[in-house]
Write a structure and sequence with these properties.
Strand content: 15-25%
Largest sheet: 9 strands, mixed
Number of helices: 14
Distance between the termini: 20 Å
Shape: globular
Strand order of the largest sheet: 15-14-13-7-12-11-8-16-17
Number of strands: 17
Length: 521
């Protein structure tokens, strides 16, 4: 079956072939890189070999993070894939920051100087990678392959060991599972999937595989010192019995769309809209769906909690040995619109996240010793300021642990924890210590430590703490929150054993998406 080109957006992008390929790799012969025979372990990379990597997703975040891969001597990027060929209409945190960073990285101070706009797309990343390698890797004479469809690269390139997935949320599960079934190590940004059934399939596939996976939110564990400090205080009784955990953020920091766009701008030249949609239901192209704002749509993103909650709460789940949520209710901001007869009404929809929301999860301890209430707040919402807090108001982002005898307040990523109130002095001598090597460290050869962890796993060290399966509970919890929002805030009861919502049949259907024909997982 032929592959779709940029100008051929009606051919179905070879979706049937994709399913056949994915299924075949489960039980049929897999092409194994030559170096595997030297190690004798399928999927493991010999220490003397470079990890040949295909980069999937060439938007702004992928370009911001490309320096970590380029500076790691053990990795060689051999291919880049993105439905967009090249454009300067991306959205980012500043008008010129990304371009300036890439100029510095490549040592090309005048690169794209005459171009207005924020760059992105596969041709941009190809140029960045090749330029960096030629200047910084003596003897480099390679080229970087570029394609709209990553599957085309994996079919054609030889000895590809791994992929990094930096695509929009709705593509994550499909790409991760396909790549694992193809025998590739996978490093991926959060979330594992923006629908429950997809994310759990990623967990199951990763757990069954001997390949190395890494979810990048693990980077935020740091050295574990601050969470260790909080846990030591809790274990020592500084706040009594832990009852509630609160976490709040200023997200969303991108426009939210309360109504589906009705205008129909043309698909930009070089942008494969059909391929970008992937498993999502077909709809007309609109820039409101892409480039940063995808996160605000139930179909494409997973909301503010998935954007930031993995960084803040994964280590909390890990330290306190929390399981997956067994219930969730939610609250959200209202948007008022006018009907055709000019009568105002509340807009309630099942297609976009609200401007602000709050979740209330019941999360059990894994040892069956009880449960704790976890509350998430976004869009400017925050919990009440605890009595005795040193300040007029809580910060814009933060975390709070409430017990029956006191409260601990910390910054968003658990930094600078403090006991609120008169009991602080009593427990001042209890000091937290680092519990893991600091993920933010840089190794002597220039490799970021978190990346070195994944490299070591690819070379046979085993499954590291950042592996997909260890993010199961936090991902499952957040996915349940999205369904509660889509169910108008209703309290949902969830059984992690059967992975079903037990008190609402319609909500249970929302655990998965309506998948386009040919993209069935």
């Amino acid at each position: 079956m032929k592959r779709e080109t940029d100008k051929d957006q009606s051919a179905g992008i070879g979706r049937r072939q994709f399913i056949k390929t994915s299924a075949a790799t489960i039980g049929a012969i897999t092409v194994i890189p030559a170096h595997v025979f030297a190690t004798g372990k399928k999927g493991r990379v010999a220490p003397s070999d470079k990890i040949r990597l295909v980069h999937i997703g060439c938007g702004t975040e992928g370009h911001h993070e490309i320096s970590s891969l380029l500076k790691a001597p053990a990795i060689e990027i051999v291919g880049v894939a993105d439905p967009n060929r090249e454009s300067y209409d991306y959205r980012d945190w500043s008008a010129n920051g990304l371009a300036d960073n890439l100029r510095t990285l490549m040592g090309e101070p005048t690169w794209k100087a005459g171009i207005k706009g924020i760059p992105g797309g596969r041709n941009i990343m190809k140029e960045v990678v090749e330029t960096y390698y030629r200047k910084n890797r003596p003897g480099y004479k390679g080229t970087v392959a570029a394609a709209a469809d990553y599957r085309e690269l994996l079919d054609q390139l030889k000895d590809v060991d791994a992929v990094k997935i930096m695509s929009p949320d709705h593509q994550h599960a499909y790409q991760a599972i396909d790549c694992l079934r193809r025998g590739k190590h996978v490093i991926m940004h959060k979330p594992l999937g923006n629908k429950m059934t997809e994310a759990m399939k990623v967990v199951d596939t990763a757990k069954e595989s001997k390949l190395s996976t890494y979810m990048m939110a693990y980077n935020a564990f740091g050295d574990g010192k601050d969470m260790n400090q909080i846990k030591k205080w809790i274990d020592a009784g500084a706040i009594g019995r832990l009852k509630e955990i609160h976490n709040w953020t200023n997200r969303p920091v991108w426009p939210q769309y309360s109504e589906i766009p009705t205008d129909k701008p043309p698909i930009p030249e070089g942008f494969n809209w059909d391929l970008w949609l992937g498993p999502a239901e077909m709809r007309d192209y609109h820039p409101a769906y892409t480039y940063m704002t995808f996160r605000g749509w139930y179909e494409f993103g997973a909301g503010s909690i998935a954007d930031m909650g993995y960084y803040s709460l994964w280590s909390v789940f890990d330290a306190l040995k929390l399981g997956s949520a067994v219930s969730c209710s939610s609250r959200f901001s209202r948007v008022i619109g006018f009907r055709a007869n000019n009568v105002p009404h509340t807009l309630v929809n099942d297609y976009s996240y609200p401007m602000a929301s709050a979740f209330r999860f019941e999360v059990p301890y894994k040892d069956n010793s009880g449960s704790v209430i976890l509350q998430w707040h976004d869009g400017g919402m925050k919990p009440q300021t605890p009595e005795g807090y040193d300040g007029d108001d809580l910060p814009l982002e933060g975390m709070m642990f409430i017990g029956d005898r006191g409260t601990i307040v910390a910054d968003f990523l658990r930094q600078n924890p403090k006991i609120v109130g008169p009991r602080a002095a009593e427990f001042a001598e209890i000091k937290g210590e680092p519990t893991i090597p600091n993920t933010y460290d840089v190794m002597p050869d220039g490799t970021d430590r978190w990346l070195q962890m994944w490299i070591d796993d690819c070379r046979g060290a085993g499954k590291g703490a950042g592996s997909f399966e260890y993010a199961k509970e936090v991902n499952e919890t957040f996915n349940l929150g999205s369904v509660s929002l889509m169910s108008n805030g209703k309290k949902l009861e969830y059984d992690p054993q059967t992975r079903t919502i037990t008190n609402d049949a319609e909500a249970n259907k929302l655990l998965t998406r309506k998948i386009r024909n040919g993209w069935e997982m």
